[in-house]
Amino acid sequence: MGYFVGVSNDVNIYVEDLNPESQRTILFVHGWPANLNLFEYQFDRLPQAGFRCIGIDTRGFGNSSKPFHGYDYNTLADDLRCVVEALGLRDFTLAGHSTGGAIAVRYMGRHMGFGVSRLVLIAAAAPSLIRRPNFPYGIEKERVLQMIEDTYNDRPQMLRNFGDNFFYRHISRPFSDWFFGLGLQAAGWATAAIAKTWINEVLFSDMESIHVPTLIIHGIHDKIVPFELGEVQHRMIRNSVLVPFEFSGHGVFYDQKDEFNDVLVKFISNRI
Q1: 8 counts as catalytic
Q2: Phi, psi (5° rounding) for residue 60?
Q3: Of 127, 192, 211, 218, which is most buried by a Cβ count within 10 Å?
Q4: How far apart are CA 224 and CA 145, in angstroms?
Q5: DSSP code of residue 208
Q6: Whose CA is closest to 64, among 12, 3, 9?
Q7: How far apart are CA 202 and CA 28, in angstroms?
Q8: Using CA atoms, how far apart are residues 38 and 187, in angstroms rounded to an integer?
């Protein structure tokens, strides 16, 4: 069931809500530059296992409003809070992939984890996607600057190049085209603005504020968000468990989708 939640006078966030009768809720936040359909292979299976699966399109992406401003982590976390309150969510699992993981981390810090009982960070771009003085992990700033320039000059080619590095296992050409199409649904200005946020913001204090049980899933072959960031998250978050996926890249939820779904269910069911 799909509907919109208004988060401001001119911004509506698109929500897909599957199996809303269930009391075991997972709220998924997608990564850059896609939308909630990134979790198709979770939405296919997890409701069958008795879970309520909620996916949102963050502002600027998918079916949500595409304003020119509001792509900082604070605003994105505030959007998430509006959705949580509108749906009356309590005692739910918050799962964020890549930039969605960064938004989830900011939500935990800025909103004190309102309603969240468990956190799942999936190849999360936190506490900083780029290397900085005194933080030798992540990717080079110049790589992000190039992605921003490519977004403004030839976004389809940038998306194609990005998709070529997203998965570790072989994907079919039709699947590649499907993934490419997810990125095209975003606004170009939103795509660039999020990349600028990677440079301008960090999440160190937010990470230290996380107290709920946390599952960290990260592919060891990730070329977008290096595996070492998952190790950093594990060191920084008390009561966390890191599960490396040996045959996955950044798209761990598809590279090893069955194992991914199994680990997620076990964690939420308190079997990890």
Answers
A1: no
A2: 90, -5
A3: 218
A4: 14
A5: H
A6: 12
A7: 21
A8: 17
CA dihedral (55, 56, 60, 61) in degrees, to 10, reads 20
Q: What φ, ψ does residue 17 adopt, rounded to 5°?
A: -125, 105
How far apart are the C-alpha atoms of 15 and 112, rounded to whole Å? 23
| pLDDT score at 272 | 79
Question: For 117-170, what is each residue's pLDDT tens digit?
Answer: 999 999 999 999 999 999 999 999 999 999 999 999 999 999 999 999 999 999
Q: Using 70 as the pLDDT threshold, list the residues of the chain that sit under it.
A: none
- What is the model's pLDDT at position 1? 78
Distance, CA of 182 to CA of 22 (rounded, Å): 28
Angstrom distance (rounded) from CA 190 to CA 199 = 15
Taking the C-alpha atoms of residue 196 and residue 149, their distance in angstroms, rounded to an integer, is 11
Q: What is the DSSP string of 189-207?
A: HHHHHHHHHHHH---HHHH
What pLDDT does 260 receive? 98
User: Structural domain boundaries of the chain?
Assistant: 2-268
Is it true that the peptide bond before 127 is cis, omega within 30 degrees of 0? yes
Residue 231 CB: number of other CB atoms within 10 A? 15
Place of tokens 């896609």: 34
Say how many residues make up the chain: 272
Is position 98 annotated as part of the catalytic site? yes
Pick the CATH number of 2-268 from 3.60.21.10, 3.40.50.1820, 3.40.50.880, 3.40.50.300: 3.40.50.1820
Catalytic residue among 57, 79, 206, 222: 222
Q: Among residues 64, 65, 98, 128, which one is catalytic?
A: 98
Q: Is 248 a catalytic residue?
A: no
Instruction: Tell me the three state secondary structure of residue 85.
Output: helix
Predicted pLDDT of residue 193: 98
Which residues are 28's β-sheet partners?
55, 95
Computed over its alpha carbons, how large is the radius of gyration of the chain?
17
